[in-house]
Amino acid sequence: MASADFCEPAYGDRSLSDVVPSVAAALGSPIGGPLGEVPTGLHLPEAPSYVVFLIDGLGADLLRRYSYSAPYLSSLMDDMPLATASVPSTTSTSLTSLGTGLVPGAHGLVGFTTRVPGTDELLNALHWDVPDLDPLEWQPHQTAFGALQAAGVRASVVNKREFEGSGLTVAAQRGSTYVGVDRVGERIAAVLAASSATPSMTYVYDSDLDWTGHRWGVASPQWLQQLAMIDHEAEQLREALPADRRLLVIADHGMVDVPAEARVDVATDDDLRSGVGLVGGEARFRHLYCHGGAVPDVVATWTEVLGDRATVLTRADAIGRGWFGAVDPSVLPRIGDVVVACHGDFAVLSTDAFPYERRLVGMHGSLTRAEMLIPILVD
Length: 379
What we know:
The chain is an alpha/beta fold. It has two domains: about 15-110 and about 125-255 and about 370-379, 3-Layer(aba) Sandwich (Alkaline Phosphatase, subunit A); about 260-360, 2-Layer Sandwich (Gyrase A, domain 2), CATH 3.30.1360. The protein is built from 15 helices and 18 strands. The chain has helices at about 20-25, 60-65, 70-75, 90-100, 105, 135-140, 145-150, 165-175, 185-195, 210-215, 220-240, 270-275, 295-305, 315-320, 370, and strands at about 50-55, 85, 115, 120-125, 155-160, 175-180, 200-205, 245-250, 255, 265, 275-280, 285-290, 310-315, 340, 345-350, 360-365, 375, 375-379. The strands form six sheets. Strands 6-5-7-1-8-18 form a six-stranded mixed beta sheet, with helices on both faces. Strands 11-12-14-13 form a four-stranded antiparallel beta sheet. A hairpin with a 6-residue loop joins strand 3 and strand 4 (about 120-125). Helix 4 (about 90-100) runs parallel beside helix 8 and helix 10 (about 210-215) runs antiparallel to helix 11 (about 220-240). It is globular and about 60 Å long.
């Protein structure tokens, strides 16, 4: 069953994997997009230098709804069409789509937690918690950042010091110059220094809004205050940049609050556990790795139990809908035998494997408009 509020990814047109190729074209150094061409739906103004500021968790619907807490960013909303996150709408997948210019089925980071083929281990791509898993093998393609460097464009990443050299950074952003910072002041100063080169693209990342939403929920006083602080930071950054530099503000996904009554826990439901060997993904988008021959029964059971609260598909059906883009054969076994995408504000927890899920208020990962639509703001 499809959901009326689902928003399909706009790969090759206006998705996160199209952002860096579009920036490259605006800089006069085209590198091509996920389909090998300059994206058709994301035309950016020419400039000698771009600063790409990614605000984790700032969905377009959230920015519109709470525009009063972000007057600067919301003032830019009408100038550009919206874009989409990757599927699933989760940080590790979206950041890799942005950094590589590839769809998830090509770059291979197809979820928050995914099975390492041939094992019963799950890779948490944010924490890269399988130490002997080489990110160069997991994601072997040249990144879009690296392609920019090879084309003579200075590509810099300004991010927390702790992320330098991490598995996700190597997979998604290798080939760029990494600048480690931990405070807003040094972050703005580092961006100004990096973007002084021409041509250049400087990527800067802020995770605080996403963390606040997970902990307290969107529209909470804490989240609204954090949004106001980030809005001020973005405005400060714009004011500090020379007039001929462009600031491009984007997000990796949105977020929805999940109330207690809209949660099902696999750990306490025998029917949902039947036939499932390993539960991956996250609460809004589950990858189910099934025992041999169990896929039809798992699809039938999960469809019956969840009803219209989720879309339950086989791997082949999800790929057929284009959720992951074109899928490389090596990536196929990383995707669940069955995938479960939640509707509305529903979530499927698995607290025996992921006990922290019961503490989350805001969640993301599925294909609702609130999660998939992201702003493309240019100033």
